Amino acid sequence: MFRNLTPVVKNLLLINIAMFVVANYFMPQLESIFALYFIQSKRFLPTQFVTYMFMHANFWHLFSNMFGLFVFGPLLEQYLGPKKILILWMVCGVGSGLLYSGYNAYKINQLDNTIATFYDNPSPEKFNNFVSKNRHMFKPGVFDFVDEYSKNPESAELIQRAKENFMGIRNLQINIPMVGASGALFGILIAFAMFFPNTELLLLFPPMPVKAKYLILFYGLYTIYNVVINNPTDNVAHFAHLSGLIIGAGLVYYWKKSRKDFY
């Protein structure tokens, strides 16, 4: 099975696994350097648009991405060649990071508007509404503060504490890093589905064959669903997955079109 590994796929697997071992067991400080932080974070570095792809949150995160590369990558590399599959991986990975950062900027801008509205006219109702929507980011003690603030809406001290809570959540948001090769992997998946749409794959759960185009379609729809519902407690960067699909599809379409024009 491992004899069928192609050079680029093998090297990507080795680099990702090596980075995971080093970052988790020898140099944990690498995460703060290599993970992708929001552009307003003090930890942000432009190089993170590349390096974040080689960091993973835990073993299962690494395993799922590398298993996908292991399954779909070799045949794709044999078909496209080592240069193009590396371009596909890197362009989808970097592009996903860029688009996700843009998406993050949109969400931070919404948060800034909420904060500005409260600053202009502070009220317990506005603060309570904010806490309700972002309760997963607050400590349980915040609800005692909500009750106290509701009873004393004119208190300058409580208003100041509410403002500090707003800014604390904003600081948390801009310092949540993104890691993982999922954006790059989703580019591989959509490319496989576009080049080999009718290839049958055997699922493990349930154990049944399914064509590549239907499997990737399911992944795509599931990703879009998660982006739309935007579950605040979900720590998976679904928008980055969707970005990888879109960028990968665009790149494959361009290659297919160029090949037709050439011949």
Automatic annotation (TrEMBL):
Membrane-crossing residue ranges in chain numbering: 12-39, 59-76, 85-103, 184-205, 212-229, 235-255
Cellular location(s) = Membrane
Judging by the UniProt lineage, the source's domain of life is Bacteria
- Give the SUPFAM superfamilies listed for this entry: Rhomboid-like
Q: What class of enzyme is it?
A: hydrolase
Q: What does the UniProt keyword field contain?
A: Hydrolase, Membrane, Protease, Transmembrane, Transmembrane helix
Choose any GO biological process term that the UniProt entry carries and state it: proteolysis
Q: What GO molecular function terms would the record report? A: peptidase activity
Q: Which InterPro entries match?
A: Peptidase_S54_rhomboid_dom, Rhomboid-like_sf, Rhomboid_protease_S54
This protein's membrane topology, according to the annotation, is: Multi-pass membrane protein
The segment(s) forming the Peptidase S54 rhomboid domain are: 48-106, 173-254
Q: What is its main location?
A: membrane
The entry assigns this protein to a family as follows:
Belongs to the peptidase S54 family.
| Name by which UniProt lists this protein | Rhomboid family intramembrane serine protease
Q: Which source organism does the UniProt entry give?
A: Belliella marina
